[in-house]
Design goal:
heterodimer; A: 5-stranded parallel beta sheet; 5-stranded parallel beta sheet; 16 helices; 19 strands; 16% strand; globular; B: 205 residues; alpha/beta; 7-stranded mixed beta sheet; 17% strand
Chain lengths: 489, 205
């Protein structure tokens, strides 16, 4: 019987096959490290007198609690400062490559791996962060781990892992202009639920996935964890190879040829069998938005806030009731009637250059709605530089948005970028949990295009609404024409 | 981690049930960046009370904790084990443990022995009669001895083996180090390496 993509990558990395229900010992090709989940791992090594086995397969960056403005100033929060200083000491002591605040390669750990060409098909990637699933977009097996496992990988470059089940998520059809990868994954999670992927590695397939850029595929794989899955993957293809070719750490010469030959064998065999299968029609998709406090509580933007009374499952119903109370929303309210206080454009889900271009394409030559705070946070310093080279920073600033330095920022509010209690935010990030973006803050997860349209109108909106309301937010003094939305979908 | 065979030391009675990991170590201590030095955090809330067992001089230097049922329930924080270990405890005896806590303990070299509730109460009575009493916990024999009194305790065979051998997860894996090295010798040269630093992207940016 044929094997799936996930099974092929797994099999290629088994060092010791576990017997009688014991886990397999799996080799790790790339270990990404950041300041929050690594200190105790390094401390554990120190206590036992162990070295980092493969510093050359390890890379560290500062992202979770770095400031996104005044980055040259001392970090005010003591815990944040301690964690960052500790990472710097540990990286120096153990010989680990570190991209610190201010470095051109600093940024969100899941942005810099692909950017440097370190993330590639057929490898295993781990990081002490649940959104490590992002790297699966390349056909890598990538998943988040805990601090003890971080120590284990630092010491041994392996992990004892139990086998997983496989789930195919097939998305066929063509997305309409204005509908993006983010809408696909929000719709997938709404369909299978936040626990639907538990125990599975997801493989995203179908014509709509194949048509996505690498950055779109990363957005989708990134949120696999939000469906409870261990990892999400997309089979590598010409799009993948073209993205990688020429990147700093991508293979070269004969290595490139050997890699390519291997990568072309990775796609799931025709006769392979998945443990579960899910289908989604891309033609039907509309811009999607969450109304509740978990990423599975989402609807199309044209719909209304659901009535918990219509939910059959008692646990889901109770969760919906609690969510509406926290979100201060009444059942039946049109999603588009919900006003926001803030728009956050950033996070490992949507802070790559294409995301910034999409956002800019909508807001170019317009002014943000009065009273709405708009923050644009690039995923890495490299993305920031690239955006500035294209003049996007001016577009954002003329729009009235704050243009920040790279980091996780308001996605999780570990740095000063937080919502105030009761504030409502349209956010391109990945989690709408209670208090995630700041104590008492209310989050609606959206795509960059919806974030942009929302920032213009002040209520949850898609670019489609701007077309019907051509003067909405238009700044008569702005010199640049608005690019049609079709160009950016 | 250090191997455990026999532990002889002062036993402290913790005559409470359902001691959750938030009591063992409050969340405020989770912000630290070390894996050691949590001795001050152990039972931080209860240690504010002057008559808490660990504040009594007879129990200074205690290495065995004799607790009520359902010790270590709640949050999965590994810090709970670190705090007990850093304070000096090598053994916790209880009629029942929280699953995650028990799993974490086995990995960190803290022996969690399951002793039936009547026997725990018998131990408490002996300790009450003679505060600062020394117990001997014999892991290979799975016995607890206090003076002339001896009782057994339960522990799963795998965890027992690991503790007796002093094998943490990493040490267990490193038993297969030759196979890891052999695997690495076959690793293709196209696979990623982070060092030396290459910066081709810089030229194109």
């Amino acid at each position: 019987m044929g094997r799936t993509l996930a099974e092929k990558v797994w099999d290629d990395h088994v060092v010791v096959r576990g017997e009688d229900g014991a886990p397999d010992l799996v080799y790790i090709d790339l270990h990404l490290v950041h300041e929050v989940t690594s200190p105790q791992a390094f401390d554990g090594l120190r206590a036992e007198g162990r070295p980092v086995r493969r510093p050359d397969l390890t890379i560290a960056t500062e992202d979770h609690n770095t400031p996104t403005q005044g980055i040259h100033l001392p970090i005010v929060d003591r815990t944040s400062r301690t964690q960052i200083e500790t990472l710097r000491r540990n990286a120096a002591e153990f010989g680990v490559r570190l991209h610190s605040l201010g470095d051109a390669e600093q940024g969100i750990v899941h942005i810099i791996g692909p950017q440097l060409g370190l993330t590639m098909p057929g490898i295993t990637v781990v990081c002490g962060d649940s959104h490590t699933s992002t790297h699966g977009a390349f056909g890598a097996m990538a998943f988040g781990i805990g601090t003890s496992e971080v120590e284990h990988v630092l010491a041994t470059q392996t992990l004892p892992l139990k086998p997983f089940k496989t789930m195919a998520i097939t998305v066929e059809g063509e997305l309409r202009p204005g509908v993006t990868a983010k809408d696909i994954i929000l719709a997938v999670i709404a369909k299978i639920g936040t626990g639907g992927g538990q125990g599975y590695v997801l493989e995203y397939r179908g014509s709509a996935i194949r048509a996505l850029s690498m950055e779109g595929r990363m957005t989708i794989c990134n949120m696999s964890i939000e469906a409870g899955a261990r990892a999400g993957m997309v089979a590598p293809d010409e799009t993948t190879f073209a993205y990688l070719k020429g990147r700093a750490h991508a293979p070269e010469g004969a290595d490139w040829d050997a890699a390519l030959a291997h990568w072309r064998t990775l796609a799931t065999d025709d006769d392979a069998v998945f443990d579960a299968e899910v289908y989604l029609d891309a033609d039907e998709l509309e811009p999607f938005v969450t109304w509740g406090t978990n990423p599975g509580q989402g609807v199309s933007l044209s719909e209304t806030v659901p009535d918990p009374a219509t939910i059959i499952d008692p646990n889901d119903r109770a969760a919906a009731e609690r969510a509406l109370q926290y979100m201060d929303l009444a059942a039946g309210t049109p999603m588009k009637a919900i006003p926001v206080d803030a728009v956050f454009m950033g996070s490992c889900t949507n802070s790559r250059i294409e995301d910034l271009r999409a956002f800019a394409s909508v807001v170019r030559g317009r002014r943000k709605a009065d009273g709405v705070r708009v923050m644009v946070v690039p995923g890495s310093m490299r993305v920031r530089l690239e955006a500035e080279a294209e003049g996007l920073d001016r577009v954002f600033e003329e729009f009235g948005a704050e243009w920040r330095f790279a980091g996780c920022s308001m996605c999780l509010g570990m740095n000063p970028d937080q919502l105030a209690p009761g504030e409502r935010c349209a956010s391109t990030s990945n989690r709408n949990f209670e208090g995630r973006q700041g104590k008492g803050g209310r989050t609606h997860l959206v795509s960059p295009l919806v974030a942009a349209a929302t920032a213009i109108r002040g209520t949850l909106s898609s670019p489609w609404d701007l077309e019907q309301d051509p003067d909405g937010g238009r700044d008569a003094t702005a010199a640049r024409p608005v690019r049609p939305v079709e160009e950016v979908a | 981690m250090d191997a455990i065979t026999t532990v002889t030391g002062i036993a402290a009675p913790l005559t409470r049930s359902n001691v959750d990991t938030d009591q063992i170590i409050p969340a405020v201590y989770l912000k630290r960046v070390t894996k050691t030095g949590f001795e001050d955090a152990l039972f931080a809330g209860w240690r504010q009370e002057p008559d808490f067992v660990l504040n009594r001089p007879q129990y200074a230097g205690a290495s065995i904790l004799v607790a009520g049922p359902d010790f270590g329930t709640g949050s999965s924080r590994e810090h709970a084990v670190w705090a007990l270990r850093d304070y000096g405890f090598r053994v916790v005896l209880s009629p029942r443990f929280g699953d995650i806590f028990r799993g974490n303990s086995g990995k960190q070299g803290l022996l969690t022995g399951q002793v039936p509730e009547p026997e725990i109460e018998r131990l408490w009575a002996l300790m009450d009669a003679e505060p600062g009493l020394e117990l001997t916990v014999d892991l290979p024999a799975q016995t607890v001895t206090a003076g002339g009194f001896t009782t057994g305790f339960d522990i799963d065979p795998y965890t027992k083996w690991r503790l007796v051998e002093g094998l943490d997860d990493i040490a267990l894996t490193l038993r297969d180090e030759a196979r890891i090295t052999e695997f690495e010798s076959r690793r293709e040269s196209w696979r990623p390496v982070t060092l030396p630093v290459r910066s081709r992207a810089e030229e194109t940016a």
